[in-house]
Input
Amino acid sequence: MKGCGPVAFRRNFVSPGAPVVHPLYMAFSLIRACPACQSKNRVGAAHLTSSARCGKCKAPIGPVREPIDVDTPAFDDIVGAAKVPILVDFWAAWCGPCRAAAPQVHALAEEMAGRAIVLKVDTEAHPDLANRFNVQAIPNFVVLKGGRIASQHPGLAPRDQMRRWLEPTSAPH
Output
């Protein structure tokens, strides 16, 4: 019986309660250009805040310094792998306050690079994520720490307030 040995069995066995991953599903990764040689490098969810190295020239690439637009699978991968706080910006293109918040959110992602991850969720494209967090008004900011909601803040907020939400010693407001 070819393929029925213990190795094949262990490889295909799924324990009860374990998430079943579709065989064609590919875990989230971000393609980032090396600042030294411009080669494209794939960076996985677990390494977004670390200093990855270029596969070609071995120069440091550094942590992600901009907000990441995510869909549901990417969101789940990043949150599941994150070892730092995450700020999620729920927004929509038609929302004036959301557009006003965008430069502040981008500046915060740059400032907090390596210490936090900033995600952007378009509520029109991904209403399932908005529903998961009971988002009823936008912009809406959710802070996740250890995969759990630490705080949620509807409405426009200045960057220094957003930074305080992400600081390790801050309590939810």
User: Anything to note?
Assistant: Residues 64-166 form a domain with the Glutaredoxin fold (CATH 3.40.30.10). Confidence is low (pLDDT under 50) at residues 1-18, 20-24, 169-173.
